[in-house]
């Protein structure tokens, strides 16, 4: 990671989803050293380069593409003409609800729209008349469903219909809320609904994930051998082939091709094989979006990198805890039921259930970072190291996901 350029800002991204839970954009969560957001972009080509590279890119069907980013802008930033030369197709400028909406600001926003920028308005309050002049100008309107209340939204949507806005449901926290917003006809969605399980009582892990759990159990046995592990893996030859394909991908930078699971264990050790088995345990099934797996991979890798940077014992265990922290959502199971079926050390189970110990503490740090709650980080490291770890983890997750998706 030594080659990573250090930025003087903290950045994370949150996906913007369509009705089919595909990611079509990212919202940037952004703070500079003084705790301000977009001001950190001024005169900083390196930051802009990273935005257009890592933060806007996504792996889909084995290839990488760039998606637009929602960038929150203050009224002073807009009115002072501090806007750097941003590629219009790459950014949606997002005005904030607490903006002072003066005639000068409305005129500036109209000018940006004429220049071809896409514009969004957040924190919309239908009771406040100050927003009215912007409704004919902006393209996307974000509605905070927690603040407005789901029951109050249908009549509001009727009032907004003449403006022909693209409506974004914000703070969608559960699958039930997502379904209700879907019925109301929202085009876009943000929130943590993907990370919440729709728990089915007494559900058992099925399909090739059973074989993965059997391999995981064998990997925990003190007298396990490369051959005993491979014998279990061969119950599902297609799965074994896919694991080896990922192992041989660029994400692992191996000098020579690995031809079998026993070869991988001999060459790289049981701990590394455990990593790949867990990667496939975290792979989304057809009824779950790839974004959940992407987030699990990013989270696991960032936990591991922070553990390495802080000199913690067993960074691989931090990876495992980070990766598995959303397996309940992937499999629609309660975490307690899930952990009864997954062979893990007791301290790792405690980290997942209670966020205790070194693994639990760093998982909590990564969760805060993902949500852009940068002011709550423990700052055991200098701030720029968190951003470098996050950015590296996004890139790593992308490489792994590409290898997992490649035919």
Automatic annotation (TrEMBL):
Residues of the HDOD domain: 205-390
Task: Write down a Pfam family by its short name.
Answer: EAL
Its domain of life reads Bacteria
Q: Which InterPro entries match?
A: dGMP_Pdiesterase_EAL/HD-GYP, EAL_dom, EAL_sf, HDOD, RNase_Y/CdgJ
Q: What is this protein called?
A: HDOD domain-containing protein
What phylogenetic lineage does the species belong to?
Bacteria, Pseudomonadati, Pseudomonadota, Gammaproteobacteria, Oceanospirillales
């Amino acid at each position: 990671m030594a080659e990573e350029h250090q930025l003087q800002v903290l950045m994370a991204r949150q996906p913007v989803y369509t009705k089919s839970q595909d990611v079509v954009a990212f919202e940037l969560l952004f703070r500079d050293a003084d705790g301000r957001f977009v001001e950190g972009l001024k005169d900083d080509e390196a930051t802009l380069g990273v935005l257009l590279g890592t933060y806007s890119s996504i792996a889909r069907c084995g290839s990488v593409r760039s998606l637009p980013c929602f960038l929150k802008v203050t009224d002073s930033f807009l009115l002072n003409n501090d806007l750097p030369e941003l590629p219009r197709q790459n950014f949606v400028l997002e005005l904030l609800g607490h903006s002072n909406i003066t005639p000068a600001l409305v005129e500036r926003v109209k000018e940006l729209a004429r220049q071809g920028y896409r514009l969004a308005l957040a924190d919309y309050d239908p009771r406040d008349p100050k927003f009215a002049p912007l409704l004919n100008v902006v393209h996307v309107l974000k509605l905070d469903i927690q603040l407005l209340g789901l029951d109050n939204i249908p009549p509001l949507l009727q009032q907004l219909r003449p403006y022909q806005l693209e409506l974004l449901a914000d703070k969608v926290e559960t699958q039930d809320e997502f379904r209700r917003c879907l019925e109301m006809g929202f085009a876009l969605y943000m929130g943590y609904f993907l990370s919440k399980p729709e728990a089915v009582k007494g559900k058992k892990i099925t399909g090739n994930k059973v074989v993965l759990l059997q391999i995981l159990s064998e990997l925990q046995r003190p007298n396990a051998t490369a051959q005993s592990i491979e014998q279990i893996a061969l119950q599902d030859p297609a799965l074994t082939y896919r694991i080896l394909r990922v192992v041989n991908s660029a994400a692992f930078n191996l000098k020579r091709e690995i031809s079998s699971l026993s070869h991988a264990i001999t060459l790289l050790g049981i701990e590394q094989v455990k990593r790949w088995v867990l990667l496939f345990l975290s792979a989304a099934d057809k009824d779950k979006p790839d974004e959940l797996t992407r987030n699990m991979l990013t989270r696991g890798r960032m936990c591991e990198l922070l553990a390495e940077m802080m000199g913690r014992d067993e960074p691989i265990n931090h990876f495992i805890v980070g990766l598995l922290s959303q397996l309940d959502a992937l499999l629609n199971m309660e975490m307690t039921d899930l952990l009864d079926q997954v062979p893990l050390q007791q301290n790792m189970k405690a980290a997942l259930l209670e966020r205790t110990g070194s693994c639990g503490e760093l998982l909590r740090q990564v969760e805060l970072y993902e949500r852009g709650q940068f002011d709550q980080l423990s700052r055991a490291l200098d701030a720029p190291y968190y951003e470098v770890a996050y950015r590296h983890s996004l890139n790593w997750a992308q490489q792994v996901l590409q290898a997992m998706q490649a035919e």
